[in-house]
Every structure is written in C-alpha cells, then in structure tokens.
Specification:
By secondary structure, this protein is mainly α. Helix content is about 75%, strand content about 5%. The chain has 16 helices and 3 strands. A 3-stranded antiparallel sheet has the order 2-1-3, with helices on one face. Helix 8 runs antiparallel to helix 11 and helix 11 packs antiparallel against helix 12.
Length: about 400
C-alpha cells in the first residue's frame, strides 16, 4: 500500500546513447535520481534532467481520441512482441498529455502487480466502458489479446471518425446562427444609432419597418443585458436538462432524427455505430444477447438505444435478429436483409462489418454534401439579415427622394 502511494513526477531529459548521438525524452519517476538510474540502465548517459512544473502537470484531460490512439499504440506494440508492461511504459512516458500519461502509468502499475488487464481497465470506467473491458477480458481468456486489441483499436478509430463527422455536420448550422447573431448585434448596437441621429432631423414620420428596426436597436442597447442573461439561462437550463433527464434527451434525439438534412445523417450514424459494435463484439465471441447490451449504449441515440434493447429482449426469447430488427421500424430494409443473410450464412460479424462500412461512407458523403449546400445558405441568411437592416435604414432616404 505504501509503495502504491509514492508520488511520481514527470521529467524531461536529454542525454547521449552509446554511439554518442543526442537523444531526449520524457519519464515519470519519484525523483531525478530515479530517472538518472533508469537512463543508465538503458545504456544512456544523462546530460540534463528537468522536472516539469506543477503548472504543466495540472493541465490536460483524457479525451476519447486519446483512448483511440492509446488502443492503436497498445495493439501495435503487442503485435510487435513487446511485453505488455513495457508497452505501457513506452506509451505513458512518451505521451504529451499529463492526464493520459498518469492514466497509462496507473494501469501499468496494476498490471505489473499481477492484475489482469481487463480488471486494471475496469478501475477507470470514465475512460474504458463495459464494452472495452469485456472485449479485453474475452481476449485474455481466449489467449488472443493481440487480436482483440487490434479489433478494439479499429472499433475506437471508426467510432471516433463517426463522431467527428457528426460534429462537423452540426458545426455548420451552429456557425451560421452564431455569425448571424454577432453581425446583427453589431449593426443594431453601433450602426443603426448613427442613422437614428440622422433621421431625427428629417421632421417626418419614419416608415414602419424603419421604426421597428430603430426601436429594436434602442431595446438592444438599453436592455441587451437582459437578453444575454435570458440566453445564458436558456443554455444553462438546456444543458442541465440534457445531462440529468433521460426523457428530455430522448425527446431531443427523436426530434433530431426528424430534422431536415441533419436527421438522415444522424440516423445513418446510429446505424453505422450499431453495425460496427455488433460486428466487433460478435467477432470477439461475445454471445449475441450480451453483445446487444453493449451495442445499445454505443448507438449514440436514445431512440436507437431503446430499440436495440427491445431487439435484445426478443432475441433472448428465441426471435431471429433480423425479425427483431424489422419490428423496431428503425432500420432500412437493406440492413435487415444483409443481417438476415449473415445469420443464415453464419457470418453475422462479416455482414455487420459491411453494413458499418457502407453507412460510415454514407455519413461521410452526406456531411460533405451538406457542407456544399450550407455554404450558399449561409450567404443567403446573412444577406437577408444584413440586407434587411440596410434597406430599413435607407427607406426614409428613398421616401424623401420620391417626395422631391
């Protein structure tokens, strides 16, 4: 217990190898002397060792992308014949993210003390979900850890790629909204008041549209802080409900699937995740009913999650997977038929993998198409907003010209 409680620190070092070449790197140890000793054991002559400041130690957090990269590194090193503990040492010492380095070295200490890799990963549920842990355990029990780690790495890379595409798809509408709000606010706060002072000398009534814009500008200048507080409250309430209320998230997910342009992309992404997770778990030898439990949580959409749980219940009672999928009305006929072929041929994992490949490509193409469609849409929205405000300001001038 006392040994496990010893605090370690990150060090940067420079030195020379036995050929006189200059090398440098990072290590984690209890002291500078420990780093120096470790370098000499590796045949390196330390020249400079510097402890990283607490400022850098406290920064960074572990992201899903970090876990995906870690999975691929571990799979590659295991397939190259590098022992598991040494692989953790190499990955941890060479990682730039202090939080990830700390996580990897914590797992290494557990494995080094005799803990199974799956159990060591299970101690960090925030980063390694049940699916990851169960697949690792299956690999250890079957004596095929290298193969399973490669499947896990591929799975994590594919799911992260899908997430990035979805974020890209959602970024454009959000960007349009933000830019439109900023441009409108600048015009209302700084530009419209200049015209308002000019209109005061006209001595005539302003057109209704112009008066509406001028009044809106005055309201934004005088009561704009209320709008900011209201918007902040709405965003906070939305995020709070989204985080704590499953029913609210289900409503959002159901609405998102029906939303034009975005909905079909989210549907294809959910099907791709479903098929990819099913292929990975089934290929690892996980029984279908158990695999579907992991698949449900990996779809990324509560509507599909509930649907997959219904599929699991029907499969558990003896129903065929293809028939259970049809009963949910969530999957296109092509997907159902491909799964049926996979079931009959005894190659469900291969067929599910083909479905995943197809829909991942579909998501990629849909995101690219949407980006092309949204570019003119952005110009149109900004043109209407800016053009409308400009027209409102020039209407009195046009009116004066027609009178003259």
């Amino acid at each position: 217990m006392a040994e496990a409680a010893v605090k370690q620190f990150p060090f940067q070092w420079e030195g020379t190898d036995n050929k006189g070449n200059r090398v440098k790197g990072k290590s984690v140890a209890v002291s500078e002397a420990a780093v120096r000793s470790e370098l000499r054991r590796q045949g390196l002559v330390p020249v400079r060792i510097r402890k990283q400041s607490a400022l850098f130690q406290s920064r960074g957090k572990v992201t899903p992308a970090d876990i995906a990269i870690f999975s691929r590194q571990l799979a590659t090193m295991m397939s190259s014949g590098i022992p598991l503990v040494q692989a953790f040492e190499i990955i941890g010492a060479g990682h730039d993210n202090p939080a990830m380095r700390k996580l990897v070295l914590a797992i290494k200490q557990d494995v080094e003390s005799g803990t199974a890799l799956a159990n060591a990963l299970a101690k960090h549920p925030l980063y390694f979900d049940d699916l990851y842990v169960n697949l690792t355990a299956a690999g250890e029990q079957a004596g095929a850890l290298e193969t399973l780690l490669d499947k896990i790495a591929t799975y994590k890379e594919k799911t992260e790629a899908i997430k990035k595409k979805i974020k890209k798809a959602l970024f454009y509408p959000a960007a349009v909204l933000v830019v439109a709000i900023i441009v409108t606010a600048i015009l209302l706060i700084f530009v419209i008041p200049q015209f308002e002072s000019l209109f005061q000398g006209f001595g005539a009534d302003l057109p209704a549209f112009t008066r509406m814009v001028v009044d809106l500008s005055a309201f934004v200048r005088d009561k704009g802080w209320l709008l900011v507080i209201l918007a902040g409250g709405v965003v906070f309430g939305f995020l709070w409900l989204k985080k704590r209320s499953r029913a609210f998230r289900e409503i959002l997910d159901r609405m998102a699937l029906k939303f034009p342009i975005i909905g079909p992309i989210l549907q294809k992404a959910a099907i791709a995740r479903y098929a990819r997770t099913l292929a990975t778990t089934f290929a690892a030898g996980v029984p279908l009913v158990e695999a579907l439990e992991s698949v449900a949580g990996a779809t990324g959409n509560i509507v599909y999650e509930n649907g997959v749980m219904r599929i699991r219940d029907e499969v558990a009672t003896g129903q065929r997977l293809q028939r259970a999928m049809e009963n949910t009305d969530l999957f296109p006929n092509m997907v159902n038929q491909m799964i049926a072929v996979g079931e009959e041929a005894g190659s469900l994992d291969d067929m599910a993998s083909k479905v995943a490949d197809f829909y991942e490509e579909e998501v990629d193409n849909a995101v690219d198409s949407m980006s092309s469609l949204l570019e003119p849409l952005i110009m149109a929205i900004l043109g209407v907003l800016v053009g409308g405000l400009v027209i409102a300001m020039y209407l009195p001038i046009f009116k004066m010209g027609s009178v003259i």
